[in-house]
Amino acid sequence: MLYLASNSPRRRELLKLGGWAFQLLPVEVDEHPEPGEQPAAYVRRLAEAKARVASRLVAEPGVVVAADTTVACCGPQGEDILGKPADANQAEAMLRRLRGRTHWVYTALALLPAGETEPLMDCCRSDVPMREYSDAEMRAYIASGDPLDKAGAYAIQHAGFHPVEELQGCYANVMGLPLCHLARNLARLGMHPLADVARACQKELAYACKVYPLIQQWAL
Known about the structure:
Blueprint: E1 2-4, H1 9-16, E2 22-24, H2 39-55, E3 63-75, E4 78-82, H3 88-98, E5 102-113, E6 120-129, H4 135-143, H5 171-175, H6 179-188, H7 197-205, H8 212-217
Parallel strand pairs: 1-2, 1-3
Antiparallel strand pairs: 3-4, 3-5, 5-6
Helix pairs in contact: 3-4
């Protein structure tokens, strides 16, 4: 049994594609970045914290799966972390900053088997080129309310807004759960998927992935 330490509907739908049996076990942790913390370290810290909190709630054998995703873009001190916007004004500021530029999405995974003290960690980064959406498109999207629970104030899969163009990396990562990374790490724990994860992911997302062979090549 897998225990998904998240209440994200996007992660839930992606996890279903692997055919694993799982239960939802959402947890809350403090998501404020530490001073000077860079995106990869930030998501790894939060994913590990979620896994540890969730593991204390598990009474049956299984593996806790925790993930954390953030959006990052160039700033004066390196890569600035863009979390979830607090309101519509903050969402607009983020979307203006990202428009017409390439930024990065990081997702860290923490897998913690019952009875273990150290999680199996991994992290995926995708380069994400945003299109030059208009102010009207941006404001209509913000008015829908969709950006307010999304890191960076957007969802790549939103059909009405479709903010991203010509993505080359892992689409599922930008949605919050890099499935091929998850599958290769669960395989290390003896939990192989019951479906062809890469095929199922591409079919579900209608996306021709170019990176999954390389990711799978890293598996044991």
